[in-house]
Amino acid sequence: MLQRTFSIIKPDAVNRNLEGEILARIQKAGLRVVAMKKIHMTREQAEGFYHVHKERPFFGSLTEFMCSGPVVCSVLEGDDAIARYRELMGATNPANAAEGTLRKDFALNLEANSVHGSDAPETAAFEISYFFNALEITG
Ligand code: IDP
Predict the structure, then answer these.
(1) pLDDT digits (tens, 9 = 90+) for 120-129
(2) Can you tell me which residues the record assigns to a coiled coil (predicted)?
(3) Helices (H), 16-137
(4) Predicted pLDDT of residue 139
(5) Is 111 helix (H, G, I), strand (E, B) or coil?
(6) Which of 44, 74, 105, 119 is most exposed, with minimal Cβ within 10 Å?
(7) Is any ligand 1 atom within 6 A of the Cβ of residue 91?
(8) 19-28 and 81-89 helices cross at what angle (nearest 10)?
(9) According to the model, what pLDDT value does residue 135 have?
């Protein structure tokens, strides 16, 4: 089933100039980049993106981190893209991430874990539309 998911290469990875390496790993995994932009989020934009976490204790720190520097947002397309990208990313905490995953190889810690990927079709739809309009997504 052809599916789209939303990806962010987070500030810790962009700061270390890793976006090319991470995008290459995404493409080698067979996912196609159908939209992409580099942005520097405001605090309000980061809070809106992570609104589902607003009651969590790490919300303030996470949203501060996400607007601490530029990020690379993209829309990825492929068969079963949501689950496949989650698998490529690895566990949220890099200490638990499997060998060969992006978080195992690049993440600094639980918060600065280098990549974000949607966890379900509904969140993918919300996240894609939060950052991209229809004209910015190629077929
Ligand atoms: P996910 O990114 O693997 O889907 P979520 O539980 O949705 O994980 O958490 C969103 C993001 O919040 C994580 O990627 C990580 O950057 C941050 N985060 C999650 N749990 C913690 C925590 O306990 N302390 C600090 N940051 C956290």
Answers:
(1) 999 999 999 9
(2) none
(3) 19-28, 43-49, 59-66, 81-89, 102-106, 121-131
(4) 79
(5) coil
(6) 44
(7) no
(8) 130
(9) 96
